Here is the input.
Amino acid sequence: MPLQIIVGAQWGDEGKGRIVDWFASQADISARYNGGDNAGHTVTVGSRIFKLHLLPSGIIHPQVTAMLGNGMVINPRTLFDEMDMLNRSGISTAPERLRVSYAAHLITPSHQALDKALESARGKGNIGTTGRGIGPAYTDKATRRGLRVADMLSPDFQERVGDHVNETNQTLRMYNAPALDPAPVCAQYREFAEWLKPYIADTSIELDTAMQAGKTILVEAAQGTLLDLDFGTYPFVTSSSTTAPGALTGLGLGLGAARSASVIGVVKAFQTRVGSGPFPTELTGDQAVRLRGTGANPWDEFGTTTGRPRRVGWLDIVLLRYAVRINGITELTVTKLDVLTGLENIALCTAYRRDGKTYTDLPFGPSDLSPYEPVYEQFAGWKEDVTGVRKWHELPPAAQAYLDRIASLAGVPLRLVSVGPEREQVVEKI
Ligand code: IMP
Here is the structure.
């Protein structure tokens, strides 16, 4: 398929990075289209662990050209640090292999300060944002006063940065937050502009040309379906379109591109969430610690970007079916199956109940899930270590039964299962 879109089918952190890495071995281009450095995508290659926040995970493969699309909000500081980290690991980030859309928006220290000020003003009702300035940068975009990557090419860029800092200072003062000195921000952003110039491109044209030439384009969504601005658990969402249709507008691809697209939904074998908001199948106490881990391992359920412990619970099929519909998911990938090994029983939420009625679909989307009670189907667990399994028929029958049930309830075929953090710890079903 020329266009493969990899989306998170939950609240983010589904393990998209390592799945992108798996598909990227066959790709020509790896692109991101939404969000910014609020994302945290981990790829493990032997003893090396790459934690990427901005760059698409496919960049680790030498034949891939990476693209940052117009739908993104880019903090140049993070981009610089991430490129430096890759360069030091021997992975080239030369302009031939990294293209940044002229129409993407820039995140500044003012956006970050405002993100934090808004969160503290929300008090108990806070969203639990990553503090990376994502919401304020998208707000500036929507109110048509944002700074775009193309502005870096303009002779008055520094002046515009100064105006932006001064304007944002007015809002910061309203929230009793300290104002920022524009001078160091302007100087820093002038340096960033000089450095970023060779990378600035019309990625829409470059993607179109690549598609016409029959190249394979791998698109990586950040966050997850349930954090989508329109379709997530609003207002406890991020500020971008995290779902597959957003890939078209976030990359400047026309509708025709969708004809050749496969949409790979990545879902963990259980459910997790960082930050506030509803979570019907959430577990607490010892059961939660069992799924989350203690933080001793890099794959334990602690945020890649913030280090916060993630909330954990049983897999929720009502929400997965919703994600399949909203994204148009064509195949599923289930990650972290190995974490369930050793559990006596595994519960799967197959429906919700409210006032004696059973629901398998949500009447008004997932924003208010509080009136619903999960209905569980119970599965026997398995004791066998699955981390060395590479063939479907070698998985314990109980694991196969659990996975088959997920795919049949979701209504899409299962393509891949990950059984450990390493690149090759993957079982292909179809
Ligand atoms: P923001 O994107 O920083 O504005 O945060 C909004 C919400 O999205 C918060 O609940 C964050 O915890 C959550 N969030 C943002 N990025 C990610 C991610 O990459 N994985 C999981 N949750 C995320």
Notes: Residues 73 and 105 are 5 Å apart (CA to CA). Residues 11-13, 38-40, 127-130, 132, 134-135, 222-223, 227, 236, 238-239, 274-275 surround inosinic acid (CB under 6 Å). The longest strand covers residues 345-354.
